[in-house]
Write a structure and sequence with these properties.
alpha/beta; Rossmann fold; 2 domains; globular; 7-stranded parallel β-sheet; single chain; about 375 residues
């Protein structure tokens, strides 16, 4: 049996939720017995979620539920033939007692601040000392984590997050997406939490220049978040609201349809304090549909989008460079199609079926050195 402990888990939405749900499902599909210990569900959808593995959730205030979950995991290791534990972050192993099995901690980026308080650094270092290995999602995150490993790089493994095969959209969802576009072309899309570091504001500021070159352009912004009102205000102030559509949250069928009608995925993510993109699974999800990406050159997106191969990296704090790179791709159909085809090939290669052996090797063979 393999255990998974996670604060973030489906059907809640998010990059870490997608990753941990994919790991659990892939382990089960490979014939492993899997038990997941997850925090309480934050959104609706529990009644429609029927995973092929055991799933136990823990509620209550944070310190209490972490302790109860840690005790449950320790009890499972005593009662069952557990082979190993995957944890979604250092916080999920912080309170675990010594276990007689290997532990792999996944690292995503933002949870490792550049300038932590002495107490925070001590907590992280102590938690990581319980792990047999740390699996990081990008070379950027690896650099963040190394500062907390006391020069023990042997336990660090770089594995880019895999994705599940992405669904074809239903005819209804595709028709809805086409109606949303209303014949406009080209179509740009961002699908993300609406927060400053995603760079949606930079794309909006690029829209006047894009409109001048492509009068029929449409920019679709899918997602929810605290930055919504500010982004609406930017679009209004720039006079580009007529070619911008805010869809709000979208479920998987609608997401597939929107990617199917898009020409370019734009998420020039940037650093905002300690907040930075550790990788960006959504770049790969867009790539599955042959959609190349514009990404920021800071953070782990440089591993998710291969510059000049599956997309283009830009200076995400420069309005001018964001506009320049968008215009470069839109203005060269040959380049756009080449990038999109390469992006689709890479997304297929990055499926869980191909990547699960890397996770298992990291967990069970961590004493053999760094994997990448």
């Amino acid at each position: 049996m393999i255990l998974i402990t996670s604060q973030n888990f489906p059907p809640d939405l998010g990059g870490i939720q997608t990753l941990m749900g994919g790991l659990a499902a892939s382990l089960a599909a490979a014939g492993e017995r899997v038990a997941v210990y997850a925090d309480r569900l934050r959104a609706n959808g529990a009644n429609d979620f029927h995973p092929p593995y055991a799933l136990e959730r823990f509620g209550g205030i944070r310190p209490w539920r972490r302790r109860v979950k840690a005790r449950a995991i320790a009890k499972a290791c005593r009662k069952h033939p557990v082979r190993g534990v995957f944890a979604d972050s250092w916080k999920s192993v912080e309170l675990l007692p010594a276990l007689p099995v290997p532990i792999a901690v996944l690292a995503h980026g933002m949870e490792f601040p550049l300038h932590p308080s002495p107490r925070k650094r001590q907590r992280i270092c102590r938690a990581l000392s319980r792990a047999h290995c740390v699996i990081v999602n990008s070379s950027f995150t690896a650099e963040r984590v190394r500062a907390y490993l006391a020069n023990d790089a042997r336990q660090l493994h770089v594995i880019h997050p895999p994705i599940d095969p992405q669904p074809a959209p239903s005819a209804t969802a595709l028709a809805d997406a086409q109606r949303l576009c209303a014949g406009r072309s080209p179509v740009l899309i961002t699908l993300a939490r609406l927060e400053p570091r995603k760079g949606i504001d930079r794309v909006l500021r690029a829209m006047p220049a894009v409109l001048a070159a492509h009068p029929g352009v449409l920019y679709i912004i899918a997602g929810v978040g605290a930055d919504k009102l500010r982004l609406h205000a930017i679009a209004d102030a720039l006079g580009v609201q007529h070619c911008v559509r805010f869809t709000g949250a979208v479920e998987s069928d609608t997401k597939a349809a929107l990617f199917s009608v898009a020409d370019l995925f734009v998420m020039p993510a940037r650093r905002e304090g300690n907040s930075v993109e550790g990788f960006g699974i959504v770049y790969l999800e867009a790539a599955w549909y042959g959609v190349p990406a514009i990404a920021g050159s800071d953070g782990g997106a440089t591993d998710a989008v291969l510059d000049g191969d599956t997309g283009i990296l830009c200076d995400a704090i420069s309005d001018a460079d964001v506009a320049r790179q968008i215009l470069l791709v839109l203005g060269d159909p040959t380049l756009r199609h080449r990038l999109g085809a390469a992006a689709a090939r890479r997304a297929v290669e990055q499926q869980w079926a191909n990547c699960l052996p890397l996770y298992l090797a990291a967990l069970f063979e961590s004493n053999r050195g760094t994997k990448s």
